[in-house]
Amino acid sequence: MTDQPSPRTNRLHLYAIVALVVxxxxxxxxxxxxxxxxxxxxxxxIPAARTVxxxxxxxxxxxxxxxxxxxxxxxxxxxxxxxxxxxxxxPFLLLAKGNEHGVESGMSSILTNGVxxxxxxxxxxxxxxxxxxTWRKTIGFLIGFVGVVFLFMPEDLGARLVxxxxxxxxxxxxxxxxxxxxxxxxxAPDTNASVGAAIMLVTAAIAALLMAIPSGMPxxxxxxxxxxxxxxxxxxxxxxxxxxxxxxxxxxGPSMIAKINYxxxxxxxxxxMIFLREEFSWRAVAAMMIIITGLLIARIGENEKW
Length: 306
Hints:
Order of helices and strands: HHHHHHHHHH
Number of helices: 10
Shape: globular
Oligomer: single chain
Structural class: mainly alpha
């Protein structure tokens, strides 16, 4: 008779994975800003740099398990391929473009992790029959929207927009792309998790290369730090995080991912200040708290567990 892990052991295991996911997702924003803005790596090549190696690795993993990718005529290529493009290729490019124009890692994280669920709430009302807007979701969305507007206002709270708002639009488009990807994921046909992830990454990598190649090969003399950051973004921030993401959902359900998204901007702000010397901003912190409050209100009454 084999001993089964105790509930406490399982919970500690889950919390350890959650902590690792928060760390990986938070530092990804720091690494992206360092690679593109400080290191000068072209934004057009960021999606390819982050997806090609993981795509090769997971394809090998799928076949090593005795599985195989479906035929190209299989409908799953459409659904999961779309998820790969909307959830990786496009947002990786837009995030890099925002960083290239000076949007710092903390700001990028707040906009991405705060606005994505807000947009998902609205899109789900129109495209997912079981997730219609309720009065709580509506109030939560409006409060979150106020937080986003507050984030775009200057420190003195004047009527003008904060400097660099046009660059921050890139990050809002990242959130929109993630939100659409989430809706596609809700409607996608069931498939093996490894096969689905492989389709997503293979499609994302091909699309990323098709976008990057016309811009010419990266020709800069990049430092070892930039190359190391690119390796970490590829192997850990894209590859390992996808595996841990699926493991968290399997162990605790999708609600835990929402809670992780509340923590990521906090740590991204801290890491940005420590490693990139980004300035502390009370406005950014206040906007983040308003957005999180709105999201918490929108989720009241949902069946969640820690």
